[in-house]
Amino acid sequence: MFTNEITMRRHGKLELVKAIQEKERNGWECVAPIAKSSNHKKEWQLSSNPKKVNKKRDYRGVSEDYTYVVKMRRVAN
């Protein structure tokens, strides 16, 4: 069974635009504009002191990862 709608995700906007152009040549159209979604993640590091039984977690920072998303559907012929 084929679906009439897909969601495309890429890490780079240029990479997504090229994929969209390729799909448009094959009979697809964009339903919504390109959206940027982010993923936040806290980074921790365990202290490695061999003398202590209880290990301590040290906060290192936050990393962000951006993903570009677009929704497409097949054009009726």
The coarse overall form would be: rod-shaped
Low-confidence stretches: none
Distance between the termini: 18 Å
H/I helix tally: 1
Give the biggest sheet.
4 strands, antiparallel
Average pLDDT level: 87
DSSP strand content: over 45%
Number of domains: 1
Rounded to the nearest angstrom, the radius of gyration is 21 Å
Helix percentage range: 10-25%
Q: Give the H and E element order.
A: EHEEE
What structural category arises from helix and sheet content?
alpha+beta
The number of distinct β-strands equals 4
List its salient traits.
rod-shaped
Describe this structure in words.
Strands 1, 2, 3 and 4 form a four-stranded antiparallel beta sheet that branches. The protein has one domain. It is rod-shaped. The chain is built from one helix and four strands; from the N terminus they run βαβββ. 17% of the residues lie in helices and 51% in strands.
Task: Give the gist of this structure.
By secondary structure, the protein is α+β, with helices and mostly antiparallel strands. The chain is built from 1 helix and 4 strands.
Reconstruct the topology from this structure.
Blueprint: E1 5-10, H1 13-25, E2 28-30, E3 35-46, E4 57-74
Antiparallel strand pairs: 1-4, 2-4, 3-4
